[in-house]
């Protein structure tokens, strides 16, 4: 097949040259008095076309190899190199990828410049003054599709295959071209140094690169989604404030320092907690923590439970500011061999407590003990109804709510500032909403169905379109209600609190 193609090209070239020779022999001038072209032997034309095709093909192949090599993840290259041993083409990439990329750069530059010059010269000889315009249009089209887009698409979609086949060839070319590349590299560094720029060497793998690696491994099936989620959660610990994972002050179970061990026994028996914070006077003055295992010492003589004060058996505790990253808290707790820390606000008051279990749950999800009675409740924090609405517990995780509702109005800052739906709605309303209050955010209407003076307990969530459909079925809105326009309109990002609207 290729022989027929080359023979056809040779015949076409011979015919074209014959036509040009005839025009030249008859001295047919162009508009400016010059001949249109210079006569050329068919063999010379074919040799030049062949040389151009070779140079162009090498350049396209190197472009494909470059994008394939840079697309491969470093950990994947290292894995191939270790599995395949000394003869693996990926061993070169793993050891000295700079040498490979420098060789590609030098080779593609040489091929591109020389092939462009050759093609332009050939076009001018064949078509005269118009050849430059023809060459520019043809080279732009051919280079764009066959020299850039197609090779790079091939390299991206078949990175491993392209790299495996091209690296040995590039490594052979490096024997001749690498010294040239090193020379230019040295000159460029010298020029940058003279201009005041200094080369910086970052981490081997940055956090963003690691996230991309995890994302790529998840998409390719290299790791499970749950495993990828755990890795991403670990990376998030450095940016997550301890307030996101702590147990808030309102849920802290503590004991007064002058209380007896009998009181501690009652609390432990009811809560099954192993560590109880000890305060003096008020919960804002936590002075220590008492372990439930201290009660074991009173088994021989339970009557002493009524005579021994909790302060006599408590241990020192560790305090952390509410702005401290979770990762730093984990490091300090590990160094101090602690399982609990007290979170304090900027005024020194108690904001809450954080335990090792709270931090671990941030990575692996909820952990339930055999004695936990609330696991069935937390599993049903977000309930989808048949009509497209939701019943959501106020303490539901805000990020999980966003996932369930496809709720883009919640920003990254909101996720950092608020851990629960209750906290977010209170922030949007500017106060603690009461029962039957309505908050509109984006496409959703949040109707408070259960709340107390401290927080939102339960919310009914409905799409604005669905709510309007229900309203259209009524002859008139109930007293105290508001129209959609008064509420901010469909798609409005500004929340509104409408007092006591009946649905």
TrEMBL record:
Residues 472-503 are annotated as: Disordered. Residues 246-305, 313-370 form the CBS domain. The chain crosses the membrane at residues 96-119, 131-150, 162-181. Its main location: membrane. The keyword Repeat applies. Residues 41-227 form the CNNM transmembrane domain. SMART domains: CBS, CorC_HlyC. This is HlyC/CorC family transporter. It is a multi-pass membrane protein. It is found in: Membrane. GO terms for molecular function: flavin adenine dinucleotide binding. Pfam families: CBS, CNNM, CorC_HlyC. Residues 493-503 have a biased composition (Basic and acidic residues). GO terms for cellular component: membrane. The keyword Ion transport does not apply. InterPro entries: CBS_dom (IPR000644), CBS_dom_sf (IPR046342), CNNM (IPR002550), FAD-bd_PCMH-like_sf (IPR036318), FAD-bd_PCMH_sub2 (IPR016169), Ion_transp-like_CBS (IPR044751), Transptr-assoc_dom (IPR005170). Keywords: CBS domain, Membrane, Repeat, Transmembrane, Transmembrane helix. It comes from Tribonema minus.
């Amino acid at each position: 097949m290729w022989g027929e193609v080359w023979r056809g090209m040779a015949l076409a070239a011979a015919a074209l040259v014959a036509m040009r020779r005839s025009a030249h022999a008859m001295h047919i001038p162009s508009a400016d008095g010059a001949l249109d072209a210079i006569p050329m032997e068919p063999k010379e034309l074919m040799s030049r076309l062949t040389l151009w095709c070779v140079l162009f093909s090498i350049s396209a192949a190197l472009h494909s190899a470059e994008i394939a090599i840079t697309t491969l993840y470093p950990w994947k290259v290292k894995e191939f190199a270790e599995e395949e041993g000394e003869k693996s083409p990926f061993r070169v990439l793993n050891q000295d990828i700079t040498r490979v990329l420098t060789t590609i750069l030098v080779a593609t530059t040489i091929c591109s410049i020389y092939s462009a010059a050759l093609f332009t010269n050939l076009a001018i000889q064949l078509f005269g003054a118009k050849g430059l315009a023809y060459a520019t249009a043809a080279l732009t089209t051919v280079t764009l599709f066959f020299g850039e887009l197609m090779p790079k698409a091939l390299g991206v979609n078949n990175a491993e295959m392209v790299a495996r086949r091209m690296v040995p060839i590039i490594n052979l070319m490096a024997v001749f071209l690498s010294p040239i590349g090193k020379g230019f590299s040295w000159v460029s560094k010298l020029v940058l140094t003279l201009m005041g720029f200094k080369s910086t060497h970052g981490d081997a793998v940055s956090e963003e690169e690691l996230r991309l690696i995890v994302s790529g491994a998840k998409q390719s099936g290299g790791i499970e989604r749950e495993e990828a989620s755990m890795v991403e959660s670990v990376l998030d610990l450095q940016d997550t404030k301890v307030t996101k994972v702590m147990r808030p002050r309102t849920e802290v179970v503590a004991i007064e320092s002058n209380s007896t061990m009998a009181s501690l026994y009652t609390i432990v028996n009811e809560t099954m907690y192993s560590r109880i914070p000890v305060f003096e006077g008020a919960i804002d003055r936590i002075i220590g923590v008492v372990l439930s295992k201290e009660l074991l010492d009173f088994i021989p003589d339970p009557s002493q439970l009524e005579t021994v004060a909790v302060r006599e058996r408590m241990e020192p505790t560790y305090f952390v500011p509410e702005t401290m990253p979770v990762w730093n808290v984990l490091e300090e707790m590990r160094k101090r061999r602690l399982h609990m820390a007290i979170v304090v606000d900027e005024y020194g008051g108690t904001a809450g407590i954080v335990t090792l279990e709270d931090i671990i749950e941030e990575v692996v999800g909820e952990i339930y003990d055999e004695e936990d009675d609330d696991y069935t409740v937390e599993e049903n924090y977000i309930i989808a109804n048949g009509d497209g609405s939701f019943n959501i517990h106020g303490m539901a995780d805000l990020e999980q709510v966003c996932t369930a509702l496809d709720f883009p109005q919640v920003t990254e800052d909101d996720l950092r500032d608020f851990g629960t739906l209750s906290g977010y709605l209170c922030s949007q309303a500017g106060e603690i909403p009461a029962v039957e209050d309505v908050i509109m955010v984006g496409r959703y209407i949040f109707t408070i169905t259960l709340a107390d003076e401290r927080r939102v307990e339960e919310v009914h969530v409905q799409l604005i379109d669905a709510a309007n459909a229900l309203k259209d079925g009524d002859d008139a809105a109930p007293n105290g209600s508001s129209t959609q326009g008064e509420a901010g309109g469909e798609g409005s990002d500004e929340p509104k609190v409408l007092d006591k609207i009946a649905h």
